[in-house]
Amino acid sequence: MKYCTLPVLLCLLLPCNLDAQKLNNRVTYVTKAEIAPIIDGYKKDACWKSATWYPLNQKWLGKDYTQKDFKGRYKLSWSKDVMHLLVEIKDDILVDQYEDPKKLWWDDDCLEVFVDEDNSGGNHQFNHNAFAYHIALNNHVIDLGPDEQPHFYDDHITCKRRTKGKKSTWELSFKLYSDEYIDDFINQAVELQANKKVGFALAYCDNDGSKERENFIGSEVVEGEDKNRGWIDAGIFGTLILVDSK
Q1: Ordered domains of the chain (ranges, CATH)
Q2: pLDDT by residue (tens digit) across 156-177?
């Protein structure tokens, strides 16, 4: 009988260990919308009435904050071609200090949507294994490309934000692209279906008037001291499982 050497045994075990580590993240079941929502910044659509609110309350960067300063929550749904996201943010001050949308975009108030189409985890800092979409107050969508430079991905996301007083409602739909995505090329979005698993996290950059953001607040529990890893490591994302409407 032949025995595996240690390197071979580790190679055989490693994928299982990585998958188990991914499964330790939060799993959320997302119900298909019988009728896709109209992206208008209102939460009147049928799919939102039945969807569950999830908290946006994990401090990834910054000092402790109060609910008077910030409070966030979100809902999810999906259709054949896109994911749907409804976000409600209570923020006492909205800051958009840079005219150039590609300059220090993370230091303005913005919503950040992290998406890993095949839920594979892994590094995505300068590749499209996953996306870290920064959605500015003017709806520009920015992420880093393989050339290590910021790019607009406005055509990936349809977004409408409505702000009344200190509460902003963000409603958006976003396409999913595989890790074979190529910038400045015609890419086909992935068609969605029940039982598909998608890596996902949500975050908000909160600036109350400083040169840099004061807080970065996410949806997922991230272990360790360095919690600002979502823009590099898709392994910290939660897992969405798409299910048919009841």
Answers
A1: 30-243 (2.60.40.1190)
A2: 999 999 999 999 999 999 999 9
